[in-house]
Amino acid sequence: MRSSLRLSSLLAPALTGGIYFLVASLSLMTSCFEGGIAFIWAANAFLMAELLTSQRANWLRAITACALASAISTALFGMGPVAAIPMMLMNVAESLTVAVICRYCVSGRNIMVSLVPLAVFVVALCGVNVVVGLGSALVASNLTPASFGDSWLQWCSGHVLGGLVCTPVLVMLMQGEWARWFRTTSRLLRLELFGLLLLLGGTTWYVFHQNHYPLLFVPLLPLVIISFRAGHYGAAASIVVLALMGGASSLFNHGYLSTIAASAGTKTQFFQIYLVFSFLLSLPVAAELNGRRKLFQMLRESEARYRIIAEHCGDMVLNLGIDGRIHYASPSVLEQIGCAPALLMGQPAADLIHPKDRGLVVATYRRALEQPGDIHRVEFRLLRAIDDLDWYEMVARAVMDEENGATGVVCTIRDMSRHKARQQALQQVASHDSLTGATSRRAFLEKLETEIDRVGNNVRSCLLLLDLDHFKAVNDCHGHAAGDKVLGVFVERLKPGLRGEDCIGSLGGEEFAILLADLDIRQASTVCERLRHMMADEPVYLDTGLSVTVTFSAGLVELDGALNAAALLEAADKALYRAKNSGRNCLHLAA
After folding, report:
1. Strands (DSSP E) along 140-233, which ranges?
2. Of 53, 153, 338, 531, which residue is least crowded by CB atoms under 10 Å?
3. What is the pLDDT of residue 419?
4. What pairs with residue 321 in β-bridges?
5. Which residue intervals define the domain PAS in the entry (predicted)?
6. Is the pTM higher than 0.70?
């Protein structure tokens, strides 16, 4: 919301400078007890609030107006025209530096939104004034009877205390926070806050206007209550009430402060310190509560979204504790595993997993606890799994507390059975030749590599390489359709002569390979001869009614764990070449 003080017309700089001049002049006329630097200084708090809540494009005119107002007020009511320019530079340097630090570090956020922005403002204000105060003390010590140390202390205390007390309140005012709070808050809470502020005002008035007992701690109780009930809005309003009621007593030297045996400047500093401690008691607590309220609201919204998703989707949702026991199960559990969610409460989630997959799932759960910021996935079968396609996928992520420690794990579990079936079907298609049904070249070579690794453990297996004789003549005489049928019949006719563990693969064209597991070279030769006769003894009938006799030549090599697949295929191919040169329809062994 735009501040009423931030006008787009030419009156805006004049209004800004006028307010700064009035506040600065009032401070100089009422709190320059030793003729030097004012003990109370809230003018820079106004400029800082203006810079913190306005666009950077408007900073120059606001700074110019306030600089001019500072110089005039110092010349008329302060240390005179000689000090006007130096003090103006110090005031502008303080306000501008604090504003730049806050805007850079808290990204333009309200300094009372949470504890971190407020802490940045407090540290920046104190640090900047410690440095800037050195220049101001040098000017004051040369133009007034006040010493350098006293002047520096007066500057730091007046500017720091004034900034701490006034800037947060002014920021809220300029950003329209008060009006927004009034519109969005219930009437009952507004009346409650008004009553608590009246109680605080009356208590503060009595405490500061009586001089019998040291009761300065009494207003702190309603101050804290207001901070808890109304947040940073109430805390800021409480500081204003406390400053007005207690300030009146300090200004007129009435009540408890009049009993302190000290100068007026010291009493003023004492009251400012009292306000700052009240500030540090209420505003940081209110800022932290404000952050927690927003977090709680976000959690409520997140919980609502989570409940809708968990209770109306087909996936199972489980909340698990640190011990792996189920704390929550979504209604979809009944449909997925046939068990009511209430019956799962307190049960170990691992009991639902198939024994073969339980270790993998438990390891994934522990990894989620150890790496709470990451998402972890695992596929598994449930205890009631019927076949190898009855699979589920779990996505797990840890639930973290305020210190980013894991307090449990939330899991979504999806039925992967259809996906697994499609995946297996695709693998089946990819691993088999579409024309003949034989294993594809790539899949066959993978099986060959696996078998090579296995033969190193006193296992003997063989590789048989086959090539159809005169296949080109079949294509030339009868067409490619007839050639395709011959290839299909060739594979189908050989399969009955093979065992379940044997594998026939298509290497391309009319070339095939058979992996004969657990057979030595002699046994494999016998199998090859049987297959050769099975093929040659019965012709292949074509769709045209004609028939062709199909034979094949073969090369056989025994697997050697020291040779790779390429070397074995080359050896078998050389043996096959010799078989073709020997008249075809025969078997040759690799050298």
Report:
1. none
2. 338
3. 65
4. 408
5. 302-372
6. no
